[in-house]
Amino acid sequence: MTALVDHVSTARRSAANVLAIRVAGAGLAYATQVLFARLMGKADYGVFATVWVWTAILGHSSLWGMSQAVCRFVPEHQARGEIPLVRGFLAGGLAFALAGGLATAAALGAVLLLWGEAIGAAHAGPLAVALVIIPFFALQDFVEGVARSFGWTTLAIAPLYLLRQGLIAATMVGAVIGGVQADAATALLCTLAAIVMSLGVQGALLLRAVRAVIPRGPRRFDGRLWARRSLPMALVDLTLLGLNFADVLILGLFAPPEAVAVYFAATRLLQFAVFVQYAASAATAQRFACAGARGEQAALRALAISTARLSTLATMGVAGSILVASPWLLSLFGPGFEASVPVLAILLAGVVVQTAFGPAESLLTMLGHERACAGLVAAALLAAVILNLMLAPAFGMVGVAVASALSMAGRGAALAIAAQQRCGFPTHALVRTARS
User: Fold this and answer.
1) CA–CA separation, 121 vs 191, rounded Å?
2) What is the CA radius of gyration of the chain?
3) Which listed residue, of 38, 290, 302, 421, carries a Cα 20 to 30 Å from 100's Cα?
4) How confident is residue 436, by pLDDT bands cut at 50, 70 and 90?
């Protein structure tokens, strides 16, 4: 019992630490986005938002689930004493991340060469900068996953959400002071510089930490096993990216850049609430994998229920605070941005409901049910796209917000049902602790 309590309390402390860093990072990110919107104006800020969304999608998807797979396989192999497999996975994963990022950048380059004129100069120039960002983005995504797999959550996220965000703002201010025009391309160039610098710091610290716990030695590779289990995770990652950004991309098909800018500003505030889920996942995913490998069913159940309850309470608190302050916070972006307050309220409701269904996604992917998870998330993405396409033309920002909120709630419910069927216990926040 003592070990179980220690397991849960350690996860809680780690999640709280992650949440504190992510909230601070969200504050920096919010300030950076306000800065960008003020310097660039609605039109250029809308272009930047669209291109950045594509950069994040392509950069993350180029890993094909590797950033999540490392959180499963490294703790699993460590728990079983398979250290040569840990070395092999880390080395192979790093090479795969670099190759995937370069291949994705090359594919985007081909698209720009063939259809650059059709895309338009306003987007083609910033997309050209994104070509260079994508490989570094992918590498940093993998490095974050490695740090999380060892339980080093501060090292995993502080360089991304504190150092990187601070550098983005600082380089943008420096560029404008130096006489560079504040447009979407400049903002992306500043983002590139910040990613490279923060990745250098994070990579050096991580290499030192890994060498301290995993000494040099022989490597073993089990490519068939890793690929077979990682591909469903890749599908989950890709579909989650689609779920996170489908609203912005589809809105851009039916609305001008100015409307995209206003909607994107609301999603920047939404991130404060979403970060609660991220903090819970970052702190518990590798622990689910370890407990599953050791057959500790009681620890799994206790950790899942505790995570669901604390995440839901924290999300509700954060969401309520954001909504109260949203008129003022959105007005800082510039005139007209406060029009997205209703949109933000709808999106926050969707996040709260989704969080209440618990960490079902992490349980499924970490315990060998990644195929079921992938299928459900893919179905949720399809539903989200259909709903967005139905509602965006007639209702604009409000329509895509409703579509996104319904998709989030539906995905949470479906995953919770699947997790209960496969893991043997409920994951939602209302489950009774006494039930065994």
Assistant:
1) 20
2) 21
3) 290
4) very low
Q: What is the pLDDT of residues 135-159, one digit of tens each?
A: 999 999 999 999 988 988 889 989 9
Q: What is the pLDDT of residues 239-298, one digit of tens each?
A: 777 878 889 989 988 888 889 999 999 998 998 888 777 666 666 666 777 776 777 777
Burial group, residue 422, by CB count within 10 angstroms (0-12, 13-18, 19+): middle
**Structure token pair of residue 329:** 């916070």
**d(C-alpha 89, C-alpha 75), whole Å:** 11
Contacts of 305 (CB under 8 A, 6+ apart): 358, 425, 426, 427, 429, 431, 433
Contact 40, 187 (CB under 8 A): yes
Residues 6+ apart with CB under 8 A from 148: 70, 71, 156, 282, 285, 286
Q: Residues 33, 218: contact at Cβ < 8 Å?
A: no
pTM: 0.76
Phi and psi at residue 429, in whole multiples of 5°? -75, -15
Structure tokens at 14: 């780690």
Residues present in the chain in total: 436
Given CA atoms 165, 166, 169, 170 in this order, what sign does their dihedral have?
Answer: negative
- Extract the tokens encoding 73: 């396989």
In this prediction, residue 11 has a pLDDT band, given cuts at 50, 70 and 90, of: low
